[in-house]
Amino acid sequence: MKLAFAISAILGLALVTVLIGYFGFRSVGEAFIGVKWGLLVLAAYQGLPILCSALAWQAVVKPVWDAPTALFLWARWVREAVNTLMPVGQVGGDIVGARLLAVNGASTAVAGAGVVVDKTVEVLTQFLFSMIGVALVLIVSTDRSLAWAVAIGLLIFAPILIGFVIAQRMGMFRLIEQLLLRLEAKSAWLKLGDVSGLHDMILHLYRNRRGLLVGTFYHLVTWLLGVGELWLAIHFMGYEVTLVAATIIESLAQAVRSAGFFIPASLGVQEGGYLVFGMLFGLSPEVALALSLVRRVRQLLVGVPALFAWQYYEGRRIILARQNSTPSDR
């Protein structure tokens, strides 16, 4: 698995280099530099989607565990950073997020089920967001072949999403409970407590319609805030696009990026998405690639501090646990 991640990362990085080199390192670099201090604005702006995602997560979990928003905000910040910056297939952050809830008072079943249901709602709302982009292309663009291709891909993916939800209800996570028990036995770090009841807790959270609706609303707002970030990034580079065009570019590019979840940081996949859909609405290849680089630098500005904060938090917990242990415990 590690070898596969390494190979995919190298290939993705090579693709990014080839794309930038083909359209000109200097041209892409000049477009990127044009954003200047706007990078700091974009990094600060990212606090809004992180907050909305945290509120969605909290809404899903609230019927069984009423924790403060600040905890979900902290856990979501770390969760996002791990998924974005580490070679974990965009799911390792969800495991870390569940752990942060568990070590702060949630039962393992609540922490695990909350992440599973929240992730499902997040993916379903992204699917809806992408369909909005496809619909807008069909309305405003004369070149519909690309939109139809994306739409067909989304429709093929739809049964997989539906099947995943059905599988959750049919007992898939009873098997995962057993897997977690085995992993827990092999890893001291993963000891979160009793994972039994995970499946039943997932079903319980799905029966909470109000929580699901609130979570859906906040996740949709999160995706729409991504449109605002894209529009701002293009504006800071000295170019302009309409909000409709920004919505189409963001929704379809994010769909492509998610399809490359098995590649660390979606290297090359994200760049290809912005290149194709950006050019569709008048962005030059250089600006489209610079836009992807701006996004990546923003991810570093927001994510790296989160990773350091998380490592400090985990290290401090280990040190305190050792200090509080007795000789007999050792």
Q: How much helix is in the residues?
A: over 70%
Biggest β-sheet, characterized? none
- Helix-strand pattern, N to C? HHHHHHHHHHHHHH
Structural class: mainly alpha
Low-pLDDT ranges: none
Average of pLDDT: 82
Instruction: Please state roughly what percent of the residues sit in beta strands, choosing from under 5%, 5-15%, 15-25%, 25-35%, 35-45% or over 45%.
Output: under 5%
Distance between the termini: 34 Å
Kindly provide the radius of gyration, computed on alpha-carbon positions and rounded to a whole number of angstroms. Answer: 21 Å
Report the count of strand segments.
Answer: 0
| General shape | globular
Domains, number: 1
Number of helices: 14
Would you write up a description of this structure?
By secondary structure, the protein is an all-alpha fold. Helix content is 79%, strand content 0%. It is built from 14 helices and no strands. Helix 2 crosses helix 14 (285-324) and helix 13 packs antiparallel against helix 14 (285-324). The longest helix is centred in the C-terminal third of the chain and has 40 residues, at 285-324. The radius of gyration is 21 Å and the shape is globular. The model has no long low-confidence stretch (mean pLDDT 82).
